[in-house]
Amino acid sequence: MPVAGRPKKSVATASDNSSSSDDSAYANGQSDNGTDTTDYNKNVSAEELAQAVSDAPDTVSEAAAEKTSDDDTKSGPKPRRGRPRKTEGAAKAARKTSGPKKTNSGNGRRGRPSTKPPASPLTKISGVGVTMATRFEEAGVTTVEEFSKLSDDDMKEVLQKCGPRYRSADAARMEGYREAAREAMEA
User: How far apart are alpha carbons 109 and 107 in whole angstroms?
Assistant: First the structure.
């Protein structure tokens, strides 16, 4: 009864007459699944097969070493995979040295010009952020000196527009802002 799967590989020699019926069928040109193997058996003699097996590398690392030694006979380096390296070519070096840099905004930086307005002088005051400084500038207070001289009523009116955190500002907090403005003027 034939065994399922791949047939055993065996090489029939002229001196080997004691092989089983499956092996002799394989050697005579038929496998278990009925395919013809006579071309394989006719082209390779037992001595050639024994020589090929003895010449084969014993380990995977030996096979890899043989493969790299075969690759060394080819000329040139292997092509690099992935993104090409940046190089300093003659054209790139010429561009770097050819005149001043082009700037869009006049501040010495390349690229898009800045869309941010210049920083307000009121942001130098401790506790005054960009939004609060914008609200005070809308009310007509543009310098730190003007900020330090604001009355409680004028400051409270502007702080009402700054948001819920500042709506309940008392006299002590407003005096703290004026004191921070005086310190910013001295610095």
Answer: 6
pTM to 2 decimal places: 0.41
| 1: number of Cβ within 10 Å | 4
> 13 to each of 8, 60, 101, 137, how far by Cα in Å?
15, 30, 83, 105
Task: Give the separation between CA 11 and CA 24, rounded to whole angstroms.
Answer: 9
Q: Where are the beta strands (DSSP E) in the chain?
A: none
| Residues 126-168 pLDDT 10s | 999 999 999 999 999 999 999 999 999 999 999 998 888 888 8
Residue 154 CB neighbour total at 10 angstroms: 15
HEC-encoded secondary structure of 86-129: CCCCHHHHHHHHCCCCCCCCCCCCCCCCCCCCCCCHHHHCCCCC
Do 155 and 174 contact (CB within 8 A), yes or no? yes
